[in-house]
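[Meeting: bench + compute handoff]

Bench side (C.D.) handed over the final construct sequence. Compute side (W.E.) agreed to return the predicted structure before the next meeting so the bench team could plan truncations. Sequence as handed over:
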Amino acid sequence: MKHEVIDTVPVLWAEAPGPLEAVLVFGCGARDETLRTLGVTHLIEHLAMSTLPRLHHDHNASVDLSLTQFTCTGRPEQVAAFLERVCTALGALPLERIDQEAGVLAAEGGRVADPQTGELLSRRYGIQGVGLAAYRGPGADRIPPEAVRETAARYFHAGNAVLVLTGPPPAGLRLPLPAGERPVRGAAQPVLNTGPSWGEDCVPGPGLALHGDLDDQALALATQVLAQRLRETVRHRHGLSYDVGSASVYTGPGAGERTISLDAREGQEQKVAELLWEEALRLARDGVTEQELADEVESLREVWQDPRSTVYELGEAAAELLFDGTYRAPEARLAEAAATTPEQVRQAFAAALDTALVVVPEDVELDVRRPDGSPLPQSACTATADGLPAEGRVFRAPLLDRLRYGAARRARLVVTDTGLYAREPDGTVHHVPYTEVVGVEMRGPGRIVFGRSTCVIPLLPDLWADLGPAVRAVDDAVPAELRYAASALRPAD
């Protein structure tokens, strides 16, 4: 791997067969946004790409939780022209195209993570950072132009970019990005839910998240063995699932999540979830075999020896450079994996299982045990209170609902000077202080209030009678920049 600098941008390149491939990588993604600006990075990517003329070679762009990437493949002169045009566009975004590109984004409907991983991240971290993966935000048509300008200025500059190439830089290559300083990221994102627990959500199948060090080779091998066992058991033996996916999510130095997600045949979601947990318990208890480890090491070797992995390795090195990490060559990683013992794998996985979060589709009840025999608890909202406050304005359900339904008679909304309290029919009291509000969606005369801890309190006329004073209290207490009208590009939930 060779290192150069062009127009102050680090350039990493290595020879690979085939046409020249380039990836311009920026150290920013959805985790750098807020609920109020969610989608702004993707909008910036679309705005920049919209300036390109019709091109007759492969090119694309993408945004995930941590990175934004502009890619192209072609002759050296085509690659050079593409990169220069993208860099120029990022320094002068066509903000007049926001409405059009917002519509394109609504049609695209993309996500930065699969549904299970998104929900698990939200449960672990709340509605912030990587936890934003579960949310849609206000919609691209509600992102203010100033948020686009501020995000572009903060992240899309030469100080936060790395270019990777599968060959030497084309002659005369220019990267005319604005100057800037790389953002200071600091420590790993704080964890709100340490686990272990399980919960229901709107997902197509069960998922598992384990918190740990992404550089822990033993844990990485353990999760790959678990995924393979699930393919053999849930798919091949029982015929209950088609896809078993795995992912790793970086949350800061020495920290991250390893996730496994499964789909499920209709009506078999609970069985798939139970098999997922049974296999996890078996791995933590009995460990892995020498043959399973050898198979995973051989799989790694095959991937790393494939010439097509060159651009992936360059991308890994670019990410480490952007986030002040240390890149380790494939040979070193392979040697470490080969030296890892079955007992090390078992111990790493058993320790990580203490952090386990499991998500299952709605209406699935999971009755399983932890390794010590105690029940795996169902997750509870972290924004609960012991009861309703003694002071504050009380709101009840509409009269007709109270006459018809006992649940409506038990529900209460209390608005105080410091926040909102909502009592569910089962007696659970949710509390969102105004200081914890990350967004307020305005739906006509109503509001949807989002708390950082994932607690959402709807202030809607069909739920609460005579709601006007509650809405006014929220509007007075929450900064105007956190309020937004519901998107016109999608139906209300």
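W.E. noted at the follow-up: The radius of gyration is 25 Å. C.D. will use this when planning the next construct.
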